User: Which sequence fits this backbone?
């Protein structure tokens, strides 16, 4: 039996001014206490978009910023639900406001396990931000867990279950993670606002008017079809134009090689790092625990990189400089099936020019599935987006929208080859280029920013 | 003789998407090269508003972001000037577009000498960001200087002269620093955009229509009086509501005490810090050079703070935690003349409660002069804002606007006493408070967030 | 005893998309029915800003548009009040939500009595829009009255009392008309949005957070002082820059003379108009009744003007053309005390040039009082704006804000002389100007758009 | 030989404040003179969106407003073209700025021939707004023509040729009318701004960066593909959600029947109208000339409608009331092939209820083709949208975008049956409904707002 419905409310609502939603409204003591934990405050020091701010200089906002936004959207949805669709009896597919607190907490905390440049960090050290989010919520050592336990001993587990998508009420789960959830709605709007692009803008107020609870989760009123369609297009546009921007990925490639080099050096020679990467050592050693992870943030990494500028290893210091002073790897599109031999030829040329391809060349593919149907026999299948007509008929989104239909089930993105910019863009200031022939040969494989294989 | 007018233009203008100005337009190779220097890229790692993002979570933007904006406004003013007011002969008070490049470079670089949390840092270590900006521009060791020298050997000095306000052309100087300059116009709009407040919004496009060059600098057409008046009000509102927010200053007070404690410890016992504050040591030792300063950024400081959480000095680790986990000192307004004895009484109470007032109590005054007349016999007097009527008559702003007149020459702000929040907001979770009486006595000196002295 | 608290609610809230407030939310059947009356729909055909759209082409919005906005702001205030300050017992200065419906209806209907170009129309025909609003509400012949009576027989009188400011509850009265009411807040934001100026923008959401009921009406929390101050400055800026724009007033002067000429002709010779001004005749005859007034709208007037283009009276057709084809009278500022003899000289010159000054020359003064204190011994004194501090102390706005203090109790605006533009701007295309000497003499009295008297 | 390149420029640019583009910049005397003609000023009295403001109350803007916007976009494109792609020799596919003036005039004047509620008016009276635009430009009697002739005797014909798409330079023609032209770009942004929906928002500044001249007209740089794609989606969304809104069409149906009834009565009995529709008579008589057309505007029609409220013909006065007091016909979707017999049955029921179906029932289909390829063998084929890659390759839009591909060549919209709302929404206030059975039978044919035919 749930007991947290009547948890302590603040005597007076607190608000945080927010550029995307106007205000974030905090109404429960427990939510305020969660915001004030050290694990949540740490999100201030982790950028929401990783290396994207190297391309879109405006997009320097943190995961703290975004997390408050997700909370606020979830709160507004709960408000709509309890006003328009309050449950009458269990199983009626309407909204039970006893679910509000677990929903709000899960919304607020869903990104808690993110670390600095998560995407790249996870590749090097095998961490998993979703798993870490759950650990932070359930581990008795965290302040987050201590606050949640004040609601009820099992409450941390319930919040964690929402994030793990094992929570029994599908309305709660889908509000936090589905193809149209509070998380995505916030990040599209927020990332668009901060980067200054307009593609991510869709009509949130309209969507909040047509969203409603249903037996199997969240659905939408028929009249909101075009607003949801527009959201899918915005999502697609943000992926194509912002998240997958080749220059941001070029910085990610530098970062990847830098951390890989550091790890490689460390694992061969402990001495190299002893006073310059204290908080990273447990990761190099693969002995890290949750508390080590919680020490990391963007500033910790860049501080270490700054130390490494003076390192005696030329590859490490070179890559550290490329990252800190923004020298992204350049890229060209390619087709894995057709162009692989060409890439191998290019790699040989790079070696001849003196680059170690392990640290100076890589492929990167970035693909996203803008929308998909529920596919019952497929692992990891997504909950599809559905509309309810006046007489109760249910229609799936791609049936109603030919635009969405064109995007359904198809991965969007591209695969690119990354290498140092100077190879194709001219060399040192002295104007001397010993590798002219090699570079010219390298460039001859490229046309229209694409690898050409004859 | 100036030779840089025909410096290399980019074959095709480059643009950076900007949420405030739409796009930043880069048209000269030298400007692009300056952006790509390591000294300029470092500004990405320094927040524009220091501790303000602890109050306005949206305001996490960097000085890099702002510097591009100042450049862009200066560029737009030059465009207006050359189109509408091109000089015909020297001394005609019109615009000589040979001044464009020095103006753009000064606009771009004017904040280069800022470090992490400059305001507080300068108080502890005696650095001076304006002086450092000039050093970075003129020191032959920086990449900035090397790029500028490509324009002409004396060019770095000219750019520096603009920032030092010794450059002969007052139009250039005033465009970069005066009571209504590209710097202020950008930061008001930008800080408003990022924090989500609307107070800082004024009509930049209107101001750009009415601004014009004059013999003694920059003036405005008469028809733009209300737009300029609105700018002054926006400036005043941003200071009152955002820049002087008591909670941000409460974080600044924590930071100040934290760094002071670190310095005090260091200067008494070198060992304490040897592996946890490498880049700060030259400052503790007072042996720092420009290159040391350029190593610092927000992340370096917070990384050291994070290390200090485990320090054996309880004051240091306590203050580091208050900063990293956002526990600002609380404050009350006071009147220095009237309330000083009361403050001393409060200080004694704090000592009785076990706090060292040197690190846990301080006063902070934040005052700004929204606008002032030119006062010929006063040191540091400001260039006043003036309008030109149809027949050439000049009118000073506060003569034309009674609103501005009400703000002219009067400092605005307040003075506050800061102390740990827990003293007035209840204590430990155990519910036991040994200092109850002391705290009650302390609180009895406060009413309506103000110290009362009878 | 009030019985309307439980009036019929719509089974599902209806919303109208609104560019200023996002959505207008209609929740009561009676409000929807009022919107659908013919008297309310007529407001679609009356522009909110009269001749201002001749200067700000974007500002073509109607009083219908604005009236919905006032309703919506009032609705949001009621929502805040009932959530945060619900009354416990009569006379406690808190909000009794039984007042909601009368408030919403008064907000919606407050401008019902406006006619086409009210300001000018009233001068010519002696109508009074506030009085007419009350008549429309209380006259048994209107659909408005019939809808209101369904709430209760006395309900129309109560709504009318709010508008007449005789309603007993000062909270209700002040929400609709005071120095900071739903009406003004909507029109400032709306007129700014439609005209494209930014001066009218203030922070409505912040004001809605700090507004609260009090025993004597509406007050504000202390923390909202700067938001209210900003609202007063916005109001002042809109008056100075938009509402009092000399060119809009130049069109108003044309309109005034056109209608005056029509009335003068009519009252001397009935035949002249019999088929071209049917709906205006009762006004020319001074026999009009409410039903006649309700026939008028902007289109009716301009249609008649278009007919008059062909009229045999040259003054009438000339003025009609100036209005329809936008040829505003030009204006210069003057000082009544000093410049009167000069104006008389200018008038003589105009007569010599062949203009009848009765229809081609006039003075116009436009003044506004941005804010005033309550002045107990003065007729028509305004309710002042007040703040409540934490401990209950009340502070009046101009005491708290020096900006507002500078505007308090002082009329702002100017007085101008209007005359046909061609007198000072050159004549016919043939290049021949028989009045050259006269015009030159006329122009010699003007400098810097001001009359000069020696 | 063109001579108008050096036509008179204004000594100082004039600007009109515009909410969508910030400012409209007027730089040529001839453009200013065109704006001041009576034919152009008349556009102030004609709403841009006809009956749409009955659904979106904010969208009350005029064709005057929009025409200035189209001019401004065209002006900005010319600025980009002359800066980045100035022609070197004839036929090089670059921009010849001698084309600027004809482009600007065509942009400004392209909607000049629109009358009140054009769409409906044209159906009743057989007028054609495009043909009328050309007449106004080329007829020697208009002020427009007189102004244009001052540029050159053939200049009016050249401007008309652009509008007729017979002008030799395809760049000019496509800038004014093609699938992505200044007209559409302005109305999408403007209609979205005024209605308050966000669907119409696309990134104009980005499109202005990537647009370029080409030999066969206008093309785009490859890098702008997603911006153009977003524009197509915005266009599609605006049609689906705003322009084709069933309620606006319900008002159009009322208007259509009202004017049809008036015409039918008039053509049978001249006396009926002689003092109430003067300006419409030439249209009833089918004897109208251009000067008659130029007398019409929205206000003229609604004034006549208001007169007709008192007409002795009950159908005429009823329909006039429905229009003036906003009582749109209600609608249901249907499928022409399947549902025709059902519609006939419904029509019979309406007759039994006493409605004359000629004036109270109609079908309306609204379809739009969001985008199409160039189809060489098809009449009226459109110029397709194309992109240029780095190496000069041309790619057609639907090849590059699968979203656009999904919309290409497919008509979007629906067909609806319209009838008086009261039939399905309950009857008179007396609560008595003699037709209950008939109405119930009528309603039985409808489900989910669609006609069902079994």
Assistant:
């Amino acid at each position: 039996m749930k007991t947290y419905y009547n948890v302590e409310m603040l005597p007076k609502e607190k608000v945080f001014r927010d550029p995307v939603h106007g205000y974030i409204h905090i109404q429960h003591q427990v939510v305020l206490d969660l915001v004030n934990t050290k694990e949540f405050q740490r999100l201030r020091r982790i950028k929401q978009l990783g290396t994207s701010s190297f391309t879109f200089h405006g997009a320097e906002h943190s995961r703290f910023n975004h997390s408050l936004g997700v909370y606020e959207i979830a709160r507004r949805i709960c408000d709509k639900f309890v006003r328009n669709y309050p449950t009458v009896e269990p199983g009626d597919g309407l909204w039970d406001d006893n679910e509000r607190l677990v929903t709000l907490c899960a919304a607020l905390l869903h990104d808690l396990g993110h670390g600095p440049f998560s995407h790249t960090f996870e590749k090097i050290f095998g961490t998993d931000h979703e798993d870490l989010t759950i650990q932070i919520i359930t581990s008795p050592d965290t302040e987050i867990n201590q606050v949640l336990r004040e609601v009820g001993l099992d409450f941390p587990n319930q919040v964690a279950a929402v994030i793990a998508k094992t929570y029994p009420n599908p309305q709660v789960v889908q509000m936090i993670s589905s193809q149209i959830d509070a998380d995505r709605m916030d990040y599209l709007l927020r990332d668009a606002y901060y980067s200054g692009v307009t593609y991510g803008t869709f009509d949130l107020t309209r969507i909040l008017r047509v969203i409603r609870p249903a037996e199997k989760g969240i659905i939408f009123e028929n009249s909101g079809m075009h607003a949801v369609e527009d959201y899918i297009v915005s999502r697609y546009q943000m992926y194509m134009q912002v998240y997958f921007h080749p220059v941001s990925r070029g910085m990610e490639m530098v970062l990847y090689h830098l951390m890989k080099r550091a790890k490689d050096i460390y694992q061969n020679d402990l001495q190299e790092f002893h006073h310059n990467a204290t908080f990273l050592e447990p990761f190099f050693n693969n002995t890290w625990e949750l508390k080590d992870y919680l020490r990391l943030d963007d500033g910790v990494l860049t501080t270490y990189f700054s130390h490494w500028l003076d390192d005696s290893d030329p590859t490490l210091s070179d890559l550290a400089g490329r990252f800190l002073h923004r020298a992204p790897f350049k890229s060209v599109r390619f087709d894995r099936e057709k162009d692989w031999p060409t890439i191998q030829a290019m790699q040989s040329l790079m070696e001849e020019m003196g680059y170690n391809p392990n640290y100076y060349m890589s492929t990167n593919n970035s693909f996203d599935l803008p929308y998909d149907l529920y596919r019952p026999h497929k692992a990891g299948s997504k909950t599809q987006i559905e509309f309810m007509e006046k007489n109760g008929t249910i229609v799936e989104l791609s049936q109603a929208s030919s635009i969405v239909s064109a995007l359904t089930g198809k991965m969007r993105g591209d695969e690119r080859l990354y290498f140092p910019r100077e190879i194709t863009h001219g060399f040192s200031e002295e104007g001397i280029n010993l590798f002219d022939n090699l570079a010219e040969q390298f460039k001859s494989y490229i046309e229209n920013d694409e690898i050409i294989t004859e």
